[in-house]
Design a protein that fits this description.
alpha+beta, Beta-Lactamase, five-stranded mixed β-sheet, 9 helices, 12 strands
């Protein structure tokens, strides 16, 4: 068996110092008084320090005293006392004749044994470029969000103009059937315009469903209910949010179901009643109910006849993975869209 002769202590120390000096990472080795025992060439190069002058001086005196940072010294004292490493401590390095730099400091206690005092290995990484890139990214994201909100605001305004034109056209035409179609088109456009208004006041893609459904029902009611004392339309919802795509589908479903209820549930001129919209989530599922206290399915002017609105509701519900059911519940009709 071949035995390897161990290095003499002085040779081992020389090898260790040589390894430190050649380290690619900016590295300092400090004694228990924070005096530099050894420094890597990469440290001296990165922070414009003369390698011939750094050994034997205190950390606080390196350069023009830019490393004399009280919080850093407190962390190093704690590392010596309790062997708790300093992990990615960030600080701003202010040097004469140089731009301010952001550095990340890591420190580890070194126990050599043999009654020797512990030392500290200190590595320093300049992260100025990384922090600048992160700042620029944040600024770009913020600028994008501002532009997106502005775009959504403009889209909402444009849709409201289109809806207004449809409403004016509906009031001018003589055909009752054409007027009904124009009113329906107006409300469908307004459902998207209302969604765009909600998106314009938020900073992300999520839509709060309570204000969205309330505003949507207020818009439909203003265009279709000629006497608010006779027919009322209201919406309730929990604190749920949904993505813009899901909200579009929910808004169009509500629009079609409310239009259908207002057209068919109250056929008599002096009939009073109400239509309510309710949304509630439970776990990953949710239920959307549109309920009226009118004449019920089969008793009005054709509510059970499938039409464009029914086809739209069925298609949107299928897209959302939900099912649609209708039922008479005493007086009136309840249509439920349920996502399990």
């Amino acid at each position: 068996m071949e035995f390897i002769t161990p290095l003499r202590p002085d040779a081992a120390a020389s090898l260790a110092l040589a390894l430190i000096a050649s380290s690619q990472a900016p590295l300092l080795v400090l004694d228990d008084r924070f005096v530099v025992i050894s420094a890597s060439t990469s440290f001296c190069s990165a922070f414009a320090i003369d390698p011939a002058t750094i050994e034997g001086i205190a950390l606080a005196n390196i350069g023009n005293g830019e490393w004399d940072v009280p919080q850093l010294h407190s962390l190093l004292r704690a590392t010596l006392a309790s062997n708790v490493a300093v992990d990615a401590y960030e600080m701003n390095l202010i040097r004469d004749g140089h731009e301010p730099a952001c550095v990340s400091v890591n420190a580890q206690r070194l126990d050599l044994g043999g009654g020797q005092q512990p030392m500290i290995a200190l590595t320093v990484t300049d992260i100025t470029s990384a922090r600048l890139a992160a700042k620029l990214k944040d600024e770009l994201v913020q600028e994008k969000q501002v532009l997106l909100r502005e775009l959504q605001h403009r889209v909402a305004n444009s849709l409201q103009i289109i809806a207004s034109v449809l409403m004016q056209s509906a009031r001018r035409v003589q055909s009752e059937e054409t007027r009904t179609h124009l009113y329906s088109a107006h409300n469908r456009v307004m459902s998207i315009a209302t969604l765009q208004k909600q998106l314009a006041i938020t900073s992300n893609d999520d839509v709060e469903l309570r204000p969205y459904l309330k505003d949507l029902c207020a818009s439909i009611g203003a265009s279709m209910i000629d006497d608010a004392n006779r027919i009322s339309l209201s919406a309730t919802a929990d604190d749920s949010t949904a993505t813009a795509n899901v909200s579009v589908s929910l808004g169009l479903i509500v629009t079609e179901l409310v239009i259908n209820a207002l057209k068919h549930a109250f056929p008599h001129p002096n009939q009073t009643g109400s239509v309510t919209v309710d949304y509630a989530a439970k776990g990953n599922g949710w239920t959307l109910n549109v309920e009226d206290d009118g004449v019920g399915i089969g008793a009005g002017s054709g509510p059970g006849t499938p039409g464009l609105g029914t086809g739209i509701v069925d298609a949107l519900a299928k897209q959302l993975g939900a099912t649609v059911t209708s039922s008479n519940k005493g007086a009136g009709t309840t249509v439920s869209v349920v996502h399990p």
